[in-house]
Structures are given as C-alpha cells and as structure tokens.
C-alpha cells in the first residue's frame, strides 16, 4: 500500500484540506471585520460551500472516465485556487455567495477524483480498505491544521496575504498529483448523468448517523477561537492514530463508537462549563480523541458496506456527508450561539441522539447487511 503514488496522494490530500479549511475562519473574519456583516450572515455564506459540493455530483463518473483523471483533479484544484483570489475585489454578499458556491462545486470534483478514483487506482485491491482509512486520516489532520492556521495567521498576515497562502497551499497538491503515475484507461461510453462516484444509498443510513461527528466539529469551528485549543484537538487525534491498530484489532465496533461519542460529549460539557483556558485545552484533547474513535467505526461501515464495484461511490458518499455535516454545524452553531453558550448544548443534544440512533438501529443495520452480502 505504501507505494510512491499513494504517499504523494496522502500529502496532496493533507495540503488540499489545509488550504480549504484555512479559508473558513479567514473569510469569516474578513466578512465581519471589513464587510460589516453579522456572524450569522458570514457563517451562512461560508456554509453554503457544503451544499455546493453536490452540484457536479451527477457528472462525476462521466468526468473521470471521459477525461484524464489527474487532469480533472489538478484543474479543479487550480480553479478553486484562482477563485479564491477574487474575494478582495467583491464585497457584496451575492458575489461572495456565488464564489463560495463555485469553490464548493470544484472542491467536490477534487475530492471525488482524488479520494474516490486516484487512490483506488494506485492501491492493490487487497489494501484498499486500509488505504481509504489512511487517506481519511490525512484529510482530518489537514482540516485541523487549516482551522488552526486560519485562526492563528490573522495576527500576522493581511487578508490579501492569507489568500496568497491559500493559493500556495493549493499549488502543492497540484504538483503532487501531477507526479502520480496512473495506468491509462480507455474512455467508456458512459451516460452523462449517473449516481456512480456520487451517492451510494446502501451506505446512506450510517452516513447520515456519521454526520453527528462533523456537525459537532462545525459548531466548535464557528464559535471557538482559541488557536491552542485546535492544537489540543490535533494532539488528541494524534494519540488516537498512534493507538489506531489496537482499536481496530481488539475493540468491538459498538463499544468503540459509544466511547468516541461519549468523549466528544464530555468535551462539549467542558466547553459549556469552562471559564478558563485549562478546561478548554482538556476539552480539545477529548474532542480529538473521541472524534477519531467514533469516526473509525463509521468509516469501517461506509467502506465495508459497498460491493466491489461500488467502492469509489461509497467513499465519495462519506466525503460529501462529512463536509455537509461540518457546514451544517457551522451554520447552526452561529445561529444559536450566545453568551450562555447554547451552541454547545445543541451539539451535546445532537451527540447524544446520534449515540442512541447508532446503538439502537445503525449497528444492527450494518451487521445484517454484512451477513447478507
């Protein structure tokens, strides 16, 4: 699995997620500070990115089997970067929304062509489940680094220079993907529209339950601004990665998911009750550790449930639902946020409901489906 091509794609995924998620706090700060918009207006404008990921979805299969897959990936990232340079010249909310929609649609194509296509192309068939898990972890680390960078760099860089950094971070995955060697595939006579490499209904129920995890992160991203807090989340997630093999080989899936969501719930309680940075940092560590534990079980379901020919579609379904969950969390977090920290109570409620739904129905659904394969 650990061949040159796969390692290049891992690094590309990390830098792509870092670039995209760095832009969230950067745009929010610019819209509120210079544009005069409210936090809710800025959060809603940024969150529309999540819905835009679905725009090109019905064309995904046609795109990667009609055109060169590397070209589809690199050109979508290049356009994503170039669109980012336009923001300083248009401060009207309608234009900003249009740019976010375009960036979301392009990011959706980049995710599909890289994670659901190129990674599978360069990985031996018996290693693809493990490859999908590892590829996901690189994206999660990139996401956390991007959020941390977006909140930290505002103290040192102007908005214009932050956008230049965003473009540089996008150029890195373009170069890395360009170095990947993929076997030539003759174009197929495919229909223009299809659900292949877009949505797999077989994994939709566990995927909707999985959205609890990114929803909680979205609420936190939009309302917690301490940069060291995000370093603590990364530390908790790194500890999970160091123990990942132990969790995968010895822990029961139902127990694993329960522990992960309970740890995330404990982190939310600490955020709600916190009155100092010490408890904030502890909450960050628990959030990172719990996120890894819970996501591991959800990912296993979404990777194992697809049939052999559905692997790419199943993984892209996860990618879409993950990003949607983050954006819904950003929007609702901003909507309910106040001095009483209601956003953390909302996230805690969603966390507990997600835990009950998983234990009461989703785990059994997964077991039955696997037996009937």
From TrEMBL:
Keywords: Membrane, Transmembrane, Transmembrane helix. It holds the Pfam family MFS_1. It comes from the Bacteria. The keyword Transmembrane applies. The keyword Chaperone does not apply. The chain crosses the membrane at residues 7-28, 40-60, 72-90, 96-120, 132-151, 163-184, 204-221, 227-243, 255-274, 280-299, 320-337, 343-367. PANTHER family: QUINOLENE RESISTANCE PROTEIN NORA. This is MFS transporter. It comes from Bacteroides mediterraneensis.
